[in-house]
Write the structure tokens for this entry.
Amino acid sequence: MQTTEFIAKARGVGRKDYSKLIEYSVTPYITPTRTQSWLRVHSIYNLMYIPFPNSWEVLLPMVQPGGTWDWLASYIPSAYYNLELITNTNSLCYLAYQSYASIADYFADIIHQRIGETFGYGGAKILWPKGAVTQEGYLYSVRFVAWNDEVARQVQGITMLGMVTELAQLAH
Amino acid sequence: MQARDKSNRKSMEEVGEKELLSAEELPERPIELPKNLKEQCFVELGDKKAKLSPLRKVRI
């Protein structure tokens, strides 16, 4: 973190700018292009209707050193930029992305952090322009649903687009 | 500007009530699923793939 103190000069007509201390933090997130790789989540579900307060939840596997997968995030960060819900019904949709501190919390439904949440009609989309980066030791899941009055099967799918770095370590 | 040609349009009076279906007369419209649809759910990283967890039902 870098802290800079300066006095902002008054300029023009109007209220003066009294801000004296502006603190900004820059955490470099190094992403060498040679070790980047796209991470994609594809899913299509043929689901039954469920009423309003309920939704479906799916847990995302996380990249582990050695090219394996586990539910707990490793020290290799995955940065997701895009999460989208697609459905074939023009109904109210719900989409959320959250983390859990442990597997016990996941089963107890104790959310550690709600990283993104949105509603939409006919679909829903969340964008993280700077990426939603995973932290080591946490679990990440997506909740999604399309509510409508038709008691019928409906197609719902989520897609996620992200980036994984340090792929060089995956090879070992 | 020239006025639009409205000869093909019908006013509501011309259409009449007969051509409009009431809510009871609307046909049931089941959701049509693609025939070759298969449920799939996986994460892809290069040539490495992993399945997502089974779905569970939760309150939002």
